[in-house]
Structures are given as structure tokens and as C-alpha cells.
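Same chain as my last thread, 445 residues:
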Amino acid sequence: MDDCRGVAFPLPPSPFRGLSPSLFFSLTTLLMSDRRVVITGIGVVTPVGNNKDEFWKNLVAGKSGIRNITAFDTTEYGTHFGGEAVGFEPKQYFKDFKDARRADRFTQLAMGAAKMSVADSGLDPDKLDVTRVGVMVGSGIGGLMTLEDNHELLLKKHPSRVSPFTIPMMISNIASGMISMEYGFLGPNMCIVTACATSNHCIGEAWRIIKFGDADVIVAGGAEASISPMGLSGFGNMKALSTRNDAPEKASRPFDVDRDGFVMGEGAGVVILEEYEHAKKRGAHIYCELAGYGLSADAYHLSAPLPDGSGAARCMNMALKHAKLNADQISYVNAHATSTPVGDVCETQAIKKTFGDYATNGLLVSATKSMTGHLLGAAGGVELAASILAIRDQIIPPTINVENQDPAVDLDVVPNVAREAKVTAALSNSFGFGGHNAAVLVTKI
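reply #2:
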């Protein structure tokens, strides 16, 4: 290395110099494995409850949050219903209400869930090294409502009427940015966008960052607010949505033979990931350990999963490998199961590839989307919260609306009624358009 005068200074010898790439990887993996990651806080905003306790109570009760959409007139649309986060008041989650008004609804939902998760964890920013606290909260679509509203102003009014806040309100990474600003968290900050796998990827990569030693705490998850004219018409014209307008509460029916598409939902799910010793030192309540994370690609189709489920299976197997668990040590799978005719069967194939005979002889699988609808980029965060609470309370939330289980789904899907069970480890799946697969694995501690 030369300075500006051309004088050469030798680099210090690297302790890893001369090692083969495989040995280098093995050594760094060993160093990473000493850092355990736990979950110390949960925050959710969902169609079945705008806080952790209400959300969990309604899931266990098998209560649907699907109803006719109130945000706009759906008369001309093929689908008239969705899972709205009714009663959510954003102003209580921002220090300055002007900031709330200058945030798209997805960011408002993200801030609400983040604030709840931080409060639940007992974190005090004044007592933390904020350079080692990060934020990774993503969104599959971002500020769709902001884009629609301002595009209408552009077309019907004048370019000067478009809000100067349009771009910062619309971009998917702005939620992570605003959460960090709210608390002054200066650590790793980014937003992963992988459609419906967004939350799991954000949470999983946050886990990796903490294990690698680059942060001690990360606020992680996802948020989505796409129940809008563009969102409803876009998914509707793909023929992806249920059109069961006569009975919205029965429209999301994963694994049922009469399922006809998914139900759009909105909300946010955010958890606090924390290095185990850091959490113990401050006396934090620990829900569970985040022990494994897997990710893969289908490389197959824009919106359809691989029919044999092999991509999702590789993802689940990676999570098991990281957690150093055998398949039959998993008590519960919170399935991605969106209630589409093709997707639910493909995931069944993936589960059977991963779990073998145990898939149909002991494993419990349920789909909480039957109650919340599909929260897209927020789904993984919300469903991880359900998995964590299943471990805490030793109860599996049901898959509601299973009136005639599809014979191709030969799994125990905990139909219609919650079930008490010994839950020591749970796996939560999320799969996104583009063939993105992600699974996170939590264990009792």
C-alpha cells in the first residue's frame, strides 16, 4: 500500500493467509456459531388485532379478520373484501404527527409494529450502544397508495401538484430509515424486497448479521399496505384472488378443496433479534431462540412455485441444517399456504420431501392466513410471531374454513380448532413471486 509520497508500507500478515477457501469458510462459520440469536420483542398490526395479545387471542379462537373493504368503493372489482387493519391509529406511534402524515400507510404500520416490539423487549436506546443496533424492516410492494394518489394528481391536475414527499413516501426502504431515525439506531440498516418472502429474508439476514458479530440487536420484519385500487385490480386480473364475495370470512381456506385464491391483507410484523449474552446481561425476557434460516430459488416461473416443491424443500432443509436439528424434532410448521389451488399442494409436496414419513405421522401444520389473509411482504413477520407464541403457550393456532380437506394435502393441518401440543421447535415458511423461498426456525429456550 502506498501513501501520497510513494513510500510503501507493508500490510500486516493475515491470520487467514494461505488457507483454502473451504477451510476459511469453516473457520468463519465456527466463529459465527458461538453467537446465539434470541427474540426478545414482538410487535404486530393485523386484520385480527393491532397488538400482540389481541392478535394471539383471536388466532387461537379461530376468528377471521376478513371483511368487506372500507378504504374505497369496490363495486367494479371482482373481489370486494380483504383483511384491513381496522382501528389502527398511526399518530400514536410517531413523535411528530407531521411525520405520520408524510408516511405511506405501509410505513405507518411498520412504525406501529416496531414501536410495539421495542417496548415489548424493554430496550432503552439511552442504555444501548446504538452503533450496534440495526433495523431491517422490508415491504414487498412499498408505498403503492402514495404512488396511486400522486399519479392521479399528475394526470388530472398538474405536475406541480405532485407531492415533494412522493418518492421518499413510496420507496420500500423508507420504513427502515424512519424507524432508525425515530430511535437513533446507527447499526446495519437495509430493506430486502422479495415479494411475500420479504419479512423472512429480512429476519434471516438480520440473524446472520448478529451471528457474524456486526450488530447486537436488530429490529426486523416487514410491512404491507396494498389494499388499494391498483393492488386489488392487479392481483384480481391475475386471477390470484378469491371471489367468494357472499362469505368473505370463509374466503381464505388453505388446504380446502374449494379454495379459489388468496385474500389480500395489510399489516406489519416486527420482532427484536438480540444476541443471547447481550439479552441476558440486560435481564431481557427471552421468548425463544432463532436457531435456523434457509433460503433458495425456484428459478421456474414469475408467480407459480415449482410443482414438486423441491425449491421450498431445499430452503427448509437449510434451516434445519443451521439449527442442527433433525426433521422429526420440529413440532410445528406455520405454512405459507395462501389458499391458492396450486400453491397449497406444492407446499405439501415440499413438506413431505423435507420431513419424510413424519410429515404425515406427527408433524402439525397450520395456516394462519386462513384468518389474517395474505399480508404479502408482512406475512413472514406476522406468522413468525404466531410461531413464537405457539412455543410460549404450547398451543397450535388452527387452519379455519377446512370443510373438505383436499386429498392432495395429506397433512395434519389442525383444522378449525386450536390444539394444545408440546411445541419445542417451529418452522415458518414464506415464498414469494419470482421463486423466492425463505424459512425461519425458532426453538424453545
